[in-house]
Write the structure tokens for this entry.
Amino acid sequence: MLAHSTVTQFPSVAIASAAEYLVVDIETGNAPTEAIENALNSWEPPKNYKDPAKIEEKRKADFDKIMERGALLDASPILCAAVKTPAARLLINGMGGVNSVESWQVYDWQDERKMLYFFREWLNDCTNMDSIIVGHNVRGFDLPKLRNAYLRHRLKLPELLAITARPEEGPQVVDTAQLFKAFSMEHRNDFCPSISDMAQSLGLPLPKGVISGADVPRLHTEGRYQEILTYCAIDTSITEQAYLLMTGQAGGLQ
């Protein structure tokens, strides 16, 4: 339970019943130097590339992508996780030093492992297999990153994130990045429409000066943890609004 663990003393979170749905968003920092170097060293040219000049051009392009997208490697740390349900809004911070974001309950841990442990206990206590997981590109990014992080730290997966031999027995997942394509002519062929594009198309308010996920590793290096948490909270709130709107559950619909 949340009140006790073998890792540390966790605060309890009282709930009346399991969450009907939970909107999840995570932010990641750059992978350790060793992981980036391993990714570079393991690079091989595509088998259909024969021209040395084209191979070198491809190598440079791929190396640039690896260096620029170090936060997407499996070894990149999860800095924080936001989770929003109809009854709660939590920011679980593994960076340390931030304990307040307006209208959000912030749990400030000093490392990734404690953050993940607490998140698992919260999920196990506050959700069940009927809880719907909602997120923007949650299938392609957030869920795989979370599962990998638990295994990296040799922690059991939260029950809601566990993979079984029968996928149909798992929880329902709604990826708003994919759902949005059914509501847009402009973005229906995009691989992964951005949250900003979705918000603009659906007429949802987007605060001015909002950063992008690509800025997070730099902000983390600069120690600007408050901005990272605020950005994570904003993305989660917009994703929830879009989910409720696109599924016909938003208030004010006639």
